UniProtKB/TrEMBL annotation:
<protein>
    <submittedName>
        <fullName>Pyrophosphatase PpaX</fullName>
        <ecNumber>3.6.1.1</ecNumber>
    </submittedName>
</protein>
<dbReference type="InterPro" id="IPR006439">
    <property type="entry name" value="HAD-SF_hydro_IA"/>
</dbReference>
<dbReference type="InterPro" id="IPR041492">
    <property type="entry name" value="HAD_2"/>
</dbReference>
<dbReference type="InterPro" id="IPR023214">
    <property type="entry name" value="HAD_sf"/>
</dbReference>
<dbReference type="GO" id="GO:0004427">
    <property type="term" value="F:inorganic diphosphate phosphatase activity"/>
</dbReference>
<dbReference type="InterPro" id="IPR050155">
    <property type="entry name" value="HAD-like_hydrolase_sf"/>
</dbReference>
<dbReference type="Pfam" id="PF13419">
    <property type="entry name" value="HAD_2"/>
</dbReference>
<dbReference type="InterPro" id="IPR036412">
    <property type="entry name" value="HAD-like_sf"/>
</dbReference>
<keyword id="KW-0378">Hydrolase</keyword>
<dbReference type="InterPro" id="IPR023198">
    <property type="entry name" value="PGP-like_dom2"/>
</dbReference>
């Protein structure tokens, strides 16, 4: 497999920022008296804040956004970390000559704060945020824009994310798609979306890019184990 470009979602994929996002939304919902339904709210993660605000706050969307931005930036550094091995993984891909990018539905200010704070800025060649395109995931536009900037071909590009929006956007853009199992979406739901593969750790990505038998064997064992478990339950 000859992948030349690896694009990543940010929150829940590279950055362990979901605790920050959930904390921030809880504060905003409490302050505005909006009923909190954890599953409903968190399933919107991966969409632009404008869409989320309009959906949950209606005519008070602008107030929702302002409150969110206030709490998010105040508590950002306290709650934001990278998932283990992320910088090492990016460094390894860079040494192999693979171009790297981030495609996120987060706004430009928040995205760059996370990228600069965590050290991701040293490795990425392009970042597309909610402010850089008019149409957002699950539509393919942000991924297509990143590929355009990098002069990348879809069949030479992989998009890695943790949500159904990511898998849908990557598929619509014509890229290979990989889902990570440590983010917002559980493995079973990711499997139903039928990405090209699932990653349980960053080491799985290296095996996938090699296209090696270790990757294929590991995927086969997971499917077989699940099938056997189902037969004996």
């Amino acid at each position: 497999m000859c992948i030349q470009v690896a694009l990543f979602d940010l929150d829940g994929t590279l950055a362990d920022s979901l605790p920050l996002i959930k904390h921030t939304y809880r504060r905003v919902f409490d302050e505005m008296g909006i009923p909190w339904g954890n599953e409903d709210v968190m399933r919107w993660i991966g969409r632009p804040i404008v869409d989320i605000a309009r959906h949950f706050a209606g005519e008070r969307a602008e107030e929702f956004i302002q409150r969110y931005q206030h709490h998010y930036h105040r508590d950002h550094d306290r709650y934001t970390r990278l998932f283990p091995g992320t910088l090492e993984m990016l460094q390894n891909l860079r040494t192999k000559g693979i171009q790297l990018g981030i495609v996120t539905s987060k706004g430009k200010t928040g995205a760059w704060r996370t990228v600069n704070f965590t050290g991701l800025d040293r490795y990425i060649d392009v970042m597309i945020t909610a402010h850089d395109v008019e149409k957002h995931k699950p539509l393919p536009d942000p991924i297509l824009k990143a590929m355009e900037i990098l002069h990348a071909q879809p069949h030479r590009t992989v998009y890695v994310g943790d949500s159904h929006f990511d898998i849908q956007a990557g598929r619509a853009a014509g890229t290979k798609t990989l889902g990570v199992t440590w983010g917002i979406t559980v493995r079973e739901e990711l499997e139903r979306l039928k990405p090209d593969g699932l990653l349980d750790c960053w080491g799985d990505l290296e095996q996938y890019l090699k296209g090696g038998r270790i990757w294929e064997l590991k995927q086969w064992l997971k499917v077989t184990e699940k099938a056997l478990k189902g037969n004996y339950d």
